[in-house]
């Protein structure tokens, strides 16, 4: 019996000035790019990505200044969409990705979709955070925002306008954490 490679692997893309750290699950199938909202990081997607299985290639990216990605003075959606496109291209995924955006990252997902081939944009949690009572205890750790007021300075552009309205799934703030298996099953019907 041969040892199996880890299901989730962590990688970095870019230079020290525009470094993006990301986790990846799977290497084949429809690419699914997971974008967290402001003050969160890529770990918020771990329960969902683990449920997606081998039929997709899931990529959860830390936005600049979040998690392990380098901070930037200006995080304009256009520049980040370009960096995200270069990252996706470097993965040699060969199919247009589904972008799943949490809260404010809907702006980045929509900008990406305007400029690059995209299979679908899905947004979740585009409202005020609700009580986490419906999120299983095991997953609540992934729904806690980091408190760093300086972080939002680079995202002024994102906060100045209302969020775009793309395909919105779930009335709850964290549908992917409330029921990761159910949310994954729904996504798999969209590929």
From TrEMBL:
Where the record annotates domain AB hydrolase-1, the positions are: 32-159
For this protein, the parts annotated as crossing the membrane are none
A GO MF term: hydrolase activity
Gene3D superfamilies cross-referenced by the UniProt entry: alpha/beta hydrolase (3.40.50.1820)
Keyword list (alphabetical) reads:
Hydrolase
A Pfam family annotated for this chain is: Abhydrolase_6
InterPro entries xrefs: AB_hydrolase_1, AB_hydrolase_fold, AB_hydrolase_sf
Q: From the Swiss-Prot or TrEMBL record, give the protein name.
A: Alpha/beta fold hydrolase
